[in-house]
## 1
Amino acid sequence: MKILIIGGGNMGKTYADSFIANHAIQKDDLYILEHFEEKVTYFKSIGFKNVFHQPADYIKEIDLIILAIKPQDIQALFPIIRNYISENQTILSIMAGVKMSTIRQGLPTKKIVRAMPNLPAQIGMGMTGFTSAEEVSKEEVFNIQNLLNTTGKSLYFDDESKLDAVTAISGSGPAYVFYFMDAMINTATQMGFTKVQAEMLVEQTFVGAVNLLNINTISCKEWISRVASKGGTTEAALLKFGEANLAEDIQVGLQAALQRAVELGK
């Protein structure tokens, strides 16, 4: 399989590195098309051979084309690559909010896969939701999922609209975690800890809690009850969270993210 990644930004480079590191593809079969010449030079300097600044006939030999560009860039990109693309080629888009129908209108192939990765994909711990057009075979979906899994875990959805919810939950999710962590770190410094001490206390608490959840079948609510003893410190904090309707506010925020994802896709 020959793969072309269009866009050498953070996610484009993440995929390039992950595919090679996990032996999902040979380096000679990986191509990169990058708009900025300095990035072309950079990729070549770190050992990537097939790096291009302009589209050309090499695109016709590609099996899978990954669109790792900003959504607003498609208006400039599609007209200059469409003549190199055939109906036998598969498109994998990671552009937020760009529907498969939009890609189908701009490029001459119906074999389209749409995915929504998140930031931890950069360290191999990402979460990606994805879907595909009916023209993509089960074997092709399986192969693409294997590629996506080099950056973490993935879930397939039959309904493309589910990707809006994926965006709201896992796509935006790391920011919610960082938001809560930042509040804890700031409070810890107010309690007298140094910034370094506060960061270590909070960061390791999150890492430990997530790993504890992963290696057991116990639910979040059950873990909460195990930590929060009657009349204890944890219960005191949780009571205040409840009085402030924190859980409800989180739900409202997630629904706002979902609504915005839907709006961006129109």
## 2
Amino acid sequence: MDTTLRDGEQAAGVEFTLDEKIKIAVLLAKLGVREIEAGTPAMAGIEKAAIKRIVDKCLNVRLIGWNRALVKDIDASIDCGLKSIAISLPVSDIHIKYKLKTTRRAVIEQLKGAIGYAKKRRLYVIASAEDASRADFDFLIKYITALKSAGADRFRFCDTVGILEPFRLFNIIKKILRIIKIDIEVHTHNDFGLATANALAGIYAGASFVDTTVTGIGERAGNAALEELVMALIKIYELKLDINIKGFHALSQFVSKASGRQIPPDKPIVGESCFLHESGIHQDGIIKNPLTYEPFDPALLGRKRKLVIGKHSGRAVIRHFLGKAGIDVDKHIATRVLEAAKEKAVFSKHYVLGRDIYPLHEGLIRNIK
């Protein structure tokens, strides 16, 4: 369930236009994402207009609207034409006491009322527990029991401030499922850099649904990254997913542009440096067999590996590039060219490309002659 259009846009300074929201939804659907949280209808204005337009696209996905446990929010979702909604309430004592200024009992009563209202209108309901990771576990079980008895279709467990690590999250989800049989969705945040790992742990524990955003964009440090999670499931867990992974690059580039958030070069899966190799030991291995230093073939993503020359490169890469041009050099010449390339890299504070090796070699030969 991708929430780039809701939680992703809640990142400070990210403001998608109406057309950008529609384009992102279309790209996600083409990618093969099965559910999209399209936004918060109660915000009205551009947000509501965009959600209506996305609904009108009749994409082959489940579109979800995010709501507080309020009748007016649910009505706004219905007015957008949505058939599926998320209803959210906080469950930790710190949220109940300081944000809602109410009681645990009142939270459960409000939850049951909102779910009942939504189910009478034949909506698919995801009942969300905000800050579940800091909630009293016995109260969390009461909350889940109440939402199930009220007719909610599934439960969303939210690690709202990203305080869990995979082993704890795994144990919590396992424990819940031993007590209550219900579809669980995990929603993880990246405050300690563990969102994707926690999402995987949730799935491994038995969660049926998992939330992501494109490139992990989201509040504070972000959410579990769509592309990271999918590739981990495919390559580490060897699952077959009906996802067009070659679409990750175009999707991430568009979201980056629309959000004004640059993609770090070393961002897993979609960063520009993911398949660059500069270290001499690694380059020697890559030249002999790419599997030595790549977890998977970049061609799977429609990407290409690239060997570049820098301070840590070795003679193997020099011979490799010159050999591609039919130039055979001995160890001495290869070392001289390498030294010149390293000097250029250090001076420019940037790696040297393979095509730059040829003029360096030609200049060296001319000087020798």
## 3
Amino acid sequence: MSYRVIALDLDGTLLTPRKTILPESLEALNKARAAGIKVLIVTGRHHVAIHPFYQALQLDTPAICCNGTYLYDYHAKKVLAADPLQPAQALQVIEQLDHFGIHGLIYVDDAMLYQTPTGHVERTLAWAQSLPAAQRPAFIQVPSLAQAARDADQIWKFALSHENTDELKQVANHIETTLGLACEWSWHDQVDVAQQGNSKGKRLKQWVEAAGYRMDEVVAFGDNYNDLSMLESVGLGVAMGNADDAIKARAKRVIGDNLSSGIADLLYKEVL
């Protein structure tokens, strides 16, 4: 099979635990781009939190952000396609979070907003501060998430984190069944809430077909449950060795973990 597109999740996949890209991966992806193969970032992250990786990869493609909620053109600095949450939906989510005592981030416009500095928030803040000023994402504490939702032009998603994952699962199930929204796990203790129907696989398919490619010409790499929609819909869906067994079982191929040269090795074997 001749693959013409490479789709990459970031956290737990292309990125190491220290949020860096392995030199082997970077070299292989640069060679792929030089060969005319399109490379796309497909992530749960906000576009403001992708800058260092997008620039390191020297991409010319748009990024699929917030688990497929929107497609962002970095060069034109604009959203190309989106299915955001409505303000009324966001306010309902916030009511549920207040009721269950769950803290969350709200991803809006060009910033990530939080009300309570949880461990997840503090880790993200520390990472942001380690970046050059021009690459730092807008990560802002607000007095009220509800007011922030009312003030936003676009609401991309909520990122909920909680140390008790059983309680977090209960809240996610409640939001799905009562509000009809999509809840996808992007980390072992983080669940993302977005508009129903949004997924990495759906947005990837839209871009692939609009660009004149086919999904069977795509190789995709991922490690978590929010990656399954793309891993199962492309020509070659590859799970990282650090993924849960349930993810590995549904992928077409399993490689080494995100500290190994697995991505580069597979690209040299199957793509280059």
